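User: Design a sequence. Structure:
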């Protein structure tokens, strides 16, 4: 059984502050998944990188996960809305965030702050940059379990991690 906690702070005109806490219990809930690509040294690949173009367009790359997704999370999506929606939906509902540029790193940061990420799909490109925008540095300390790994003919490795229950 999973328990979610949602709290509201309310201040009155007379300087009184109250805090209301709601416990939402239930079985399975929707899953939040991020899909991303990075270099061997952990940086976002450049838009003009051929291997990155392959990940973004090939049926085994990002389009595969977009097709399985119930809802693609746009940059700036309200996290409190997502928390409520995630609790209301069942396990067949998948919210997917595509982390592929500097702007989408802000979405990753927001999802990380609220510990909403249940699954990470990482495409590791066989190249190094030595500098740039680090992709997964923003993730909170959490234990992940490798669910699946695949190697493509062009040397790209796809790793799928699920949040570990322990």
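Assistant: Done.
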């Amino acid at each position: 059984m999973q328990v979610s906690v949602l709290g509201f702070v309310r201040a009155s005109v007379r300087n009184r502050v109250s805090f209301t806490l709601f416990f939402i219990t239930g079985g399975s809930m929707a899953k939040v998944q991020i899909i991303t690509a990075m270099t061997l040294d952990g940086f976002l690949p450049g838009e003009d990188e051929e291997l990155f173009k392959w990940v973004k367009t090939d049926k085994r790359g990002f389009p595969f996960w977009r097709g399985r997704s119930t809802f693609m999370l746009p940059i700036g999506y309200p996290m409190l809305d997502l928390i409520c929606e995630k609790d209301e939906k069942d396990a067949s509902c998948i919210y997917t965030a595509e982390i592929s540029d500097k702007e989408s790193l802000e979405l990753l940061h927001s999802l990380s702050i609220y510990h909403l990420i249940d699954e990470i799909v990482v495409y590791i490109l066989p190249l190094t940059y030595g500098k740039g925008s680090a992709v997964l540095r923003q993730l909170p300390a959490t234990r992940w379990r490798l669910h699946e790994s695949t190697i493509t003919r062009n040397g790209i490795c796809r790793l799928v991690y699920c949040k570990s229950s322990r």
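The chain has one domain: 29-163. The two ends are 14 Å apart (CA to CA).
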